[in-house]
Design brief:
Distance between the termini: 58 Å
CATH class: Mainly Beta
Mean pLDDT: 84
Shape: globular
Number of strands: 11
CATH architecture: Beta Barrel
Largest sheet: 6 strands, mixed
CATH superfamily: CheA-289, Domain 4
Helix content: 10-25%
Length: about 160
């Protein structure tokens, strides 16, 4: 017999722009200082480039640009949350996201997460809008982000260099 689902989940609220991303705590690999990303040719505005982290070239995503949210002052964007990719593809084991500070640990259960979706189509990369205690948060669609990044990076690396 399988183990019952946990009643509570340890999560983090990651500050991005005027919102918070709600993620399982286990997805955060590390929070680091922002370094200048290496550009990716032909990348959409939300893919800021790639940063070097522990021997990896990790794609750096601006979630506020991806989701069409209000961006914070760029001078306040001094951190990067490196996330463990969920897809298991060895070409993309990590994704980096710009943050405005450090993630805040919280323990949640189903009663503390209230959907706030108004029926409009959600932006690409967003799975849900929720209210978590007093914070408005977005649950990112990490699978979509990973698949899109793999397609983008594969197509840019396949182009002949000028």
């Amino acid at each position: 017999m399988s183990d019952p689902l946990p009643r509570e989940i340890r999560c983090v609220l990651v500050p991005v722009g005027d919102l918070r991303l709600l993620l399982p705590n286990a997805t955060i690999a590390e929070v680091i200082t922002l370094s200048t990303p290496a550009p990716v040719a032909g990348a959409p505005p939300w893919l800021l480039g790639r940063i070097a982290w522990r021997g990896w070239r990790v794609p750096l995503v601006s979630f506020t640009r991806l989701a069409g949210s209000i961006e914070a002052d760029i001078e306040l964007t001094v951190r990067v949350a490196v996330l463990k990719a969920l897809g298991g593809d060895p070409r993309l084991p990590f994704i980096a996201v710009l943050t405005q500070g450090f993630p805040r640990l919280t323990t949640l259960n189903a009663e503390l997460i209230i959907p706030t979706h108004d029926g409009k189509e959600l932006p690409a990369g967003v799975r849900a809008h929720v209210l978590v205690r007093d914070d408005i948060a977005m649950i990112p669609d990490l699978e979509w982000i990973e698949a899109t990044l793999l397609d983008l990076l594969e197509s840019t690396e396949a182009r002949p260099q000028a």
